[in-house]
Design brief:
Elements lengths: L2 H17 L1 H30 L10 E4 L5 H10 L3 E14 L6 E8 L3 H5 L5 E2 L14 E4 L1 H7 L10 E4 L2 E8 L13 E4 H4 L1 H5 L7 E6 L5 H18 L1 H4 L6 E3 H5 L4 H32 L1 H9 L4 H38 L13 H27 L3 H6 L8 H36 L10 E7 L8 H16 L4 E7 L10 E6 L12 E7 L3 H5 L3 E4 L13 E5 H6 L10 E4 L7 E8 L14 E5 L10 E8 L7 H11 L6 E5 H7 L2 H35 L1 H9 L4 H29 L2 H4 L10 H27 L3 H7 L1
Parallel strand pairs: 3-8, 5-7, 14-19, 16-18
Antiparallel strand pairs: 1-9, 1-10, 2-3, 2-9, 4-7, 5-8, 6-7, 11-20, 11-21, 12-20, 13-14, 13-17, 15-18, 16-19, 17-18
Length: 800
Amino acid sequence: MSLDSVRLDLRYAARRLGRAPAFTLAAVATLALGIGANTAMFSVVRAVLLRPLPYPEPDRLLRIRRGSSAPDLRDLAAQTRTCEGFAGYRPQFFDVPGEPLAERLDGALVTGDAFRVLGVHPALGRLLTVEDDRAGAEKVAVVSDSFWRGRMGADPGAASRTFRFVTGTYRVVGVLPPGFELPEAKGDVFAAQWPESGPEAEARGAHTLYGIARLRPGVTLEQAQADVDTIAARLAKLYPVENRDRQYALVPLHAFLVRDVRPALLLLFGAVGFVLVIAAVNVVNLLLARAADRHREMAIRASLGAGRGRILRQLLVESVLLATIGGAAGLVIGGWALGLIVALGKDQVPALETVRLDPWVLAFTASVSLLTGLLFGLAPGLQAAGRSVAPSLKDGVRAIDSPGRDRMRRLLVASEIALSVVLLAGAGLLLRSLNRLQSVDPGFQPERLLTFNLTLPMNPYRDVPRRTLFFETVLDRVRALPGVTAVAATSELPFDPGKVPQNFVIEGEPDIEPGREPEVMSRAVSPGYLHTLGIPLRRGRDLEAMDTANTEPVGLVNEAAVRALFHGTDPVGRRVAWARATPRVWIRVVGVAGDVRGDGLDADDTAALYTPLAQESRVWRTWANVAVRSALPPSTLTDAIKREVAGVDKDVPVTRVRAMEELMEGSFAGRHFTLALLGAFAGVAVLLAGIGIYGVMAYAVSRRTREIGLRMALGARTRDVLRLVLGQAVTVALLGVAVGVAGALALRRIVAGMLFGVGAGDPATFLTVAVLLSLVALVAGYVPARRAARVDPAAALRAE
């Protein structure tokens, strides 16, 4: 096959497609939808699941599944034989003084070896080392490229400059390369842990760090895990209180980062694959119909000496050209769809903001277009190339399809409907699940509730009474604002990450071996917190203003604690204490609060202990989240609240200002993302299936004009013709629905883990989908049926 012959085939194919603009437009639009959706989702899957992390040899990087402490990481690094190092980090803010309030910058505290373990090299100066992470070390930091350019004027001598934050002055020792980010901790400022938070750096029980490790070359994950398990057992014997039952499960870092989104993205990628198959089936049916209309042309070409291979090649060239045009249009649709996907899921899917139509995506689109063109052109090509010449020339202008070919087209449409049923059933199950989730009572009243965070710098507010006075003053000033009906502070808001579990003991209960005490969520709150959020008080009394640092320590437990820890007995009057506190301080339980689904509407509340903010003595707890209930829209209060906080201390910024309903919505935003995309893909699939039914029925009517004319000439009425054509459409639809329901039931485990309150084989969902697709088939088949019913018998017989 010469290049000239291919060029001739392409020119001929282009002329043929140009002479059939309606066919070409329909096929290109159908393919563009399927290829565009696949292009967009492949871009997401590549960026999130396939693209390696931006560190040297990222496949050797591991993540410790649970939080780690700095002493444990130091011991692991010193004793390991399989890893080149262990390190840790955690998100940390840095406030820059300013007017009217300080500006908060994101960053992280890191152990000294963190950057070496990641394999990062500085763009300027040096990075942090273990020498910077020791007692008495100077406060030093490295900064991001954007910080260096924006706040330090891209000064080449920045590596020796100092920079003042609210918590003190730091010497900048290095600048990170452009685009650098710590996994799970984006930011501009990175400081060593010890100088900033010495007590935490020495506390073996402070499991606050994200632990990472780097495998030695040639070491497997299994070998590293066995090594770490041996060290963990050794540490448990040395430190039975803090390290009893402490395990360090190692996971590849990339797998850990995408663990929550992988199932949804793979589900969506499979869904767009279904959409592409449906689009391709539609085009196959279009090409089969067109090939039947071109039978005389193919017969003449064959009679003039064209072999079957030559005819097949010509038709394949036409289909590949069609797919190429569809692929180019699909790139445009894919780019548009990708923008929507990024906007919809940027807060739920890691690395989504890095998604681009890069060369790999272009190669994927080109490959899909070529493969699709070859596959959907094969059946019509073989059909046309396999026709006998003589019968085709004798038949005249028109030829009557064989029953086998007619059945093939209907089976193809049935397969479209089956795939549509699978997609629509998945979307329906997710929709019902989301509706069930949104109807769950969260245990409080989120309406007209504004929240914001105040985190105090440790140095000025290390004194607990001064810290308490600050929060109380802010609450008083906010309470006095017009429209505010209630205000309260809490260490942990519902639906907000960062919960703090702590071990505690119950007075009068049998002694529990240190390290095995039960855990409760520690929630420090101001008086009126239950009233402000609308949490019911089940028994006893609420925390009140009289509960101060100078009175008996008191607290409330929630109903989950009553069930799990007090075995259903009345806890009011009993005393509990934090197991690790020295000296041990007994807290009297004065009431029971209702449960709050603060970890998500699909999760029951865990055992919790509410204590007065005024009695909070833990030095490290420097933050409070304020909840403001107002008769006014919450957003109208933001500026006034910032002014009141600035009136107390302008160096304390107001951050994370959000309506409580926004927080609650965020808890199932990932479900929204999956449902929105799967629903969109299912909608496209149903549309394409409807078009497919319409196309097959319309073509069948056009080929059976003489038959229908004879039927009507012999006495058939309009409703008989309608019943004939619609009956065929419904038969195809029912076959597709039956196969689709069976397929959806076989695949139901894929979505089972994403559902809440709905079974993966929910009968109502499947019945609704079956009815919907049957109605689509009726509507799609009705127009051709009406056209058939209006055939003039005399005109039809004369035309034949």
